[in-house]
Write a structure and sequence with these properties.
With 274 residues, the protein is α/β, with parallel strands linked by helices. It contains 14 helices and ten strands. The strands form two sheets. Strands 1-2-4-3-5-6-9-10 form an eight-stranded mixed β-sheet, with helices on both faces. Helix 3 crosses helix 4 and helix 8 packs across helix 9. The protein starts with a strand and ends with a helix. The mean pLDDT is 97.
């Protein structure tokens, strides 16, 4: 059974949060990436993980069923406040933060402003530590992904949908089923153009924050990732004081979707170890 919550995040923004699993179990807070939503974690939320663990997935601001204001995406503190609001409102006891792709920056935003005292550890899934020039110039993003950016910003619906379809294909190594494409495209198109532009407007390098983190980190990266290139995972492993790098062969950007059995086993083991 899945329960929905409405949580007031940074700046008074309403955030949609889904919860399932054992309410008395150790908790994991899943944070999705760019132009996605909490449904991306369906292969975790509706899996044997729910028997023992408390599983929570938030729709980040501007995405899914969360509010989608303008000019609310450039402030690191607001992103940190969103995560803190979910932890506080749901009374999560030292959750593991599991963040996919763009959510790596959201996790580091959180640690920058709130530290690590209220979390047990972090899981970085194809996640990035930088945005804007510090990310692009380091060569951590794939050329195929960069070519889609104009389409993400287009006000032309056809161009926007075409770019999102290609994004979904880039997220995985094997050809996705039509059912999976339609499922993912449905929540991708819910994200307005101004939100995508807002997320890409940020220009930052959070490497120094990650270098200082002392809680355990599980780094889950696909060997065939064409969005956050494998060099990103190696870079993150070099930054982490207590990082365990897990490389998934024949997997692209979404290890939790493409290899859910392995991912679920590893994050369960990690959750019980911290």
């Amino acid at each position: 059974m899945t329960t929905s919550h409405s949580v007031v995040g940074g700046g008074g923004i309403r955030l949609h949060v889904s919860e399932t699993g054992n309410p008395r179990g150790k908790s994991i807070l899943f944070i999705h990436g760019f132009s996605q939503c909490g449904l991306a974690w369906s292969r975790q939320l509706h899996s044997p993980l729910a028997k023992d663990l408390r599983l929570v997935a938030m729709d980040i601001r501007g995405h899914g069923l969360s509010e989608k204001p303008r000019d609310a995406y450039g402030d690191s503190k607001l992103w940190a406040d969103d995560v803190q609001a979910v932890i506080t409102a749901l009374d999560l006891d030292k959750p593991v933060l599991s963040g996919w792709s763009y959510a790596g920056v959201i996790i580091s935003d959180y640690v920058k402003h709130y530290g690590e005292d209220r979390i047990a550890g972090t899981n970085w899934v194809g996640a990035v530590s930088r945005l804007g020039d510090p990310l692009v110039q380091a060569g951590f993003l794939g050329a195929d992904f960069m070519a889609l950016v104009p389409g993400f910003f287009s006000e032309n619906f056809g161009e926007s949908v075409a770019a999102l379809q290609k994004l979904i294909r880039l997220c995985v190594y094997e050809e996705p089923s039509l059912e999976d494409v339609c499922f993912c495209l449905g929540y991708n198109v819910l994200v307005p153009t101004h939100v995508r532009q807002g997320l890409f407007s940020r220009n930052l390098n959070n490497d120094s924050i990650i270098e200082k983190m002392h809680k355990p980190m599980l780094l889950s990266y696909g060997e065939q990732d064409r969005i956050a290139l494998p060099s990103m995972g190696k870079h993150m492993a070099g930054l982490a004081r207590q990082g365990t790098l897990s490389i998934y062969p024949n997997v692209g950007h979404a290890a939790f979707w493409e290899a859910p059995e392995r991912f679920n086993r590893e994050i369960s083991d990690f959750r019980y170890s911290v």
